[in-house]
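[step 3/7] inverse_fold.run input=structure_tokens len=492
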């Protein structure tokens, strides 16, 4: 029963990575002495429940030989602990002299002046050398011209003789080097660099990955994973490989809490349904959770008016197939990416003998949708943040126009809208302008690669859309422009 649940977890759209927990120590109490902490961490390998972990690992992955959860001979020693590279770096309390910006600028200017002087000197010396080599003479009469012709002929002949001699010398040197490079049967071949660990084809390859959080640790992540990995090797004698590994041992250190597990995913699952990525492609796991907030019902029409690579409608069609999904973009390349991703998912569905997903892709303008009034049940989209794409100033005009158009197209009472953006000021101003038609509900904060973004949930009220009242957008409050941002036309 537990293994059926395992496969159901791996099929969830909200999961990026999955691992099986083998051991958890709630209060490990790391010492201030790094060697002592690393020694205790090595000894933890003995108490890990390898049997449970490897049993779950076998359900997902395979290996040509059976993998034992215990070694044939349990080693007495698991190796001496080693210090991490962090011990050699300057600590916060060290008296490190820091240079001011003014001093650094002064040093740069002096360095540039010295480089210019050297360059000028080299130029003058090179010009002098050229003048000496040219042997310039003044010609005054016919005799001088004849003498000059004779000397020039002699110089040309001597140059040709020098070239012939040089070619002969080069040929001799090439022959000598060729003889040197030929393998001599009497001489022994050069010894190869010995491997630190022995390789056995009957044993799996493994690596240890450490994720560490918390303060006041006397070690770093590299030191923890190298010491723990050395102990695992001394315990099982598995092969060590950082890239081509069969088993990935996960070591999680959170302050004084330590967890050890085995990874059940080789790479992040957010890439499983996407093959064509754009400049700001949304993670499918975030799209899945946004769809969950919308509570999709059978027969509803779900629209992403700014679909990008089509991640949101694809996730919806996969996990809520009873709905009808529309995806649109103003950029042709984005529409092509969506179509490519839909075709890729349908190919995967055919391999699993499942029906194709149905996503209708259209090129349109989100501020002027080719849809009838009150025809869409759910609007869900990832709005441009104005950081990597667009700008905050553009959002101040774009956001109200998009929400105003959604107010026309969304069904009364049952309609919903879900937005993801990092431009909080822009979306709040837009929601205030269309507050006549919408009721604001849930707001969920998420961290997207260091950006503090939010998901906003809104519900359509019973107010009929009034086309006679045009949208009035107030003047944008000028903020610092983002130099790294791109226009929408730049990605076409």
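[step 3/7] decode complete -> sequence:
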């Amino acid at each position: 029963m537990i293994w059926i649940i395992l496969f159901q977890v791996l099929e969830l759209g909200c999961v990026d990575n999955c691992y099986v927990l083998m051991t958890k120590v709630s209060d490990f109490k790391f010492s201030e002495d790094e060697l002592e902490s690393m020694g205790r961490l090595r000894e933890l390998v003995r108490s890990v429940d390898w049997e449970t972990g490897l049993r779950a690992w076998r359900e997902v992955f395979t290996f040509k030989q059976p993998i034992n959860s215990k070694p044939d001979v349990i080693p007495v020693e698991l190796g001496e602990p080693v210090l991490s590279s962090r011990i050699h770096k300057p600590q916060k309390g060290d008296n490190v002299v820091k240079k001011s910006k003014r001093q650094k600028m002064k040093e740069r200017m002096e360095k540039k002046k010295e480089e210019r002087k050297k360059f000028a000197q080299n130029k003058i010396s090179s010009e002098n050398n050229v003048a000496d080599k040219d042997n310039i003479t003044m010609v005054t009469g016919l005799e001088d011209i004849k003498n000059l012709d004779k000397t020039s002929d002699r110089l040309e002949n001597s140059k040709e003789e020098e070239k012939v001699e040089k070619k002969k010398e080069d040929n001799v040197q090439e022959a000598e080097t060729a003889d040197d490079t030929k393998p001599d049967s009497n001489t022994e071949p050069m010894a190869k660099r010995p491997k630190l660990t022995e390789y056995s084809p009957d044993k799996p390859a493994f690596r240890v990955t450490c994720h560490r959080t918390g303060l006041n640790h006397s070690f770093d992540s590299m030191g923890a994973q190298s010491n723990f990995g050395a102990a695992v090797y001394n315990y099982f004698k598995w092969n060590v490989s950082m890239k081509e590994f069969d088993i990935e041992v996960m070591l999680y250190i959170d302050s004084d809490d330590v967890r050890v597990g085995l990874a059940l995913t080789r790479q992040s699952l957010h890439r499983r349904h996407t093959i064509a990525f754009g400049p700001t492609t949304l993670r499918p796991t975030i799209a899945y959770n946004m769809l969950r907030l919308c509570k999709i019902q059978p027969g509803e029409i779900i629209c992403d008016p700014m679909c990008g690579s089509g991640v949101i409608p694809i996730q919806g069609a996969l996990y809520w197939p009873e709905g009808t999904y529309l995806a649109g973009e103003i950029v042709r390349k984005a529409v092509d990416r969506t179509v490519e991703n839909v075709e890729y998912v349908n190919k995967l569905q055919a391999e699993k003998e499942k029906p194709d997903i149905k996503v209708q892709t259209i090129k349109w303008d989100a501020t002027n949708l080719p849809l009838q009034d009150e025809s869409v049940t759910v609007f869900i989209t990832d709005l441009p943040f104005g950081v990597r794409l667009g700008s905050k100033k553009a959002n101040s005009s774009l956001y109200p126009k998009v929400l105003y158009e959604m107010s026309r197209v969304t069904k009364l009472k049952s309609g919903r809208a879900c937005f993801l953006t990092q431009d909080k000021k822009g979306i709040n101003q837009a929601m205030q302008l269309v507050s006549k038609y919408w009721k604001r509900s849930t707001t969920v904060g998420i961290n997207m690669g260091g950006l503090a973004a939010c998901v906003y949930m809104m519900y359509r009220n019973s107010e009929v859309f009034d086309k006679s009242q045009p949208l009035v957008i107030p003047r944008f409050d000028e903020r610092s422009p983002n130099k790294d941002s791109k226009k929408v036309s730049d990605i076409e």
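[step 4/7] annotate
The radius of gyration is 35 Å.
Confidence is low (pLDDT under 50) at residues 133-152, 167-193, 478-485, 487-492.
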